[in-house]
Amino acid sequence: MDQLKSHLFGSSAPPSWLASLQTFAESIYTNPLNLLLLLTVIYVVLPLVRPSSPESSRWTPTLAEARSHLAAPSDRYTYLPPNHPDTVEWTKYTPRTLAVFDGTGDDQDGSRILLAINRKVFDVTKGKNFYGPGGPYGNFAGRDASRGMAKQSFDLDMLTPLDKPIDKLEDLTASEVKNMKEWEGHFTGKYGIVGELIDESEV
Question: Cytochrome b5 heme-binding domain: from which residue to which, for each copy (predicted)?
Answer without folding.
Answer: 93-198
